[in-house]
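--- STAGE predict ---
source: upstream dedup step, 1 unique chain passed
mode: sequence only
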Amino acid sequence: MRKLVVLYLFFMVFMSGCSLITEHNGDSLCEGSLSECEGKVVQFEAKFADEVFQHMIDTELPYERMFYADSDRFGQLVVYSNVVTDECDGMILTGTVIKIEGQTKRPGSDELYAERQLIAEDIVCMP
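--- STAGE serialize ---
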């Protein structure tokens, strides 16, 4: 019985570092689409993108790192962060959704293009 308790405790401590949560710093997590979650905190599983698609980049944001992440929930998006992490097979990203706007690349168009991206406050590599 003692071994089972120790195994259970080890499992719970190990899994607590990589499980999805429902709150972050007292705020409940947004469960909607990227546009619905703009300005709100989201959490989702992702991986570093193998193939990078064309995205707008905000070079004036004060973050040390920028990378492309692929997720089942949001597809591919740009992530800015001061959290430095090694490349890992999978990760849990927690952060605030932001909106980047700019001119479309269509010749002769004055249309504004908007894209939602993430400022990651926490990155946890999954085992």
